[in-house]
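Pilot study result, target chain (184 residues):
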Amino acid sequence: MQPPAGSQVSRVPAQRAPSDQLPPAAPTPAPQPPRRRMRTVLTVVAGVLALLCLGGVAAGYVLYNRAAAPDRSAPDVAVASYIQSFLSDRNDARANVFACQGGADLDDLRLFRDDLTGREERFNTKISTSWEGFAVQQQGDFANVEVDIVISAFVDGISQSDRQRWRFEMRHQDGWRVCKAARA
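Predicted structure:
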């Protein structure tokens, strides 16, 4: 309703509220509480650490497999590893890694090792084995390796040694493997 004419109210200029006179201000974002920021930072750091740990585990697994895998890259390398495992270390499980899968004829070499073990007990000494003079003949996935096996021992303070030539028949089955061993 309008004020009556001549009243004092009509002569007073209309006053506006201060909010009407100023341009609208951009809304300011409410500051995040410190807990929420800290939680976000911790979540990001935990995620990065988890990824680094998984990467480290994967790298460790690959490096371990490369270091622990038997070297069957060449016939003479496989024979040397087999002799080391079977005769020197006398570790049948490790030697089997270098033997043919399904039907290796290694009885002659087993008899040779049993003879060495019997001599050690009889003469109360340790017999050591070494090998040298590899001769490799390879045709495709088959190879023959001849090697001198040297057995040495100290008996009653006297050094004794013997040299025997052995022939190993090899086959490539996921790397070179020993399939037969016999004296040459």
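One observation from the pilot: The longest strand covers residues 158-172. A full batch analysis is planned for the follow-on phase.
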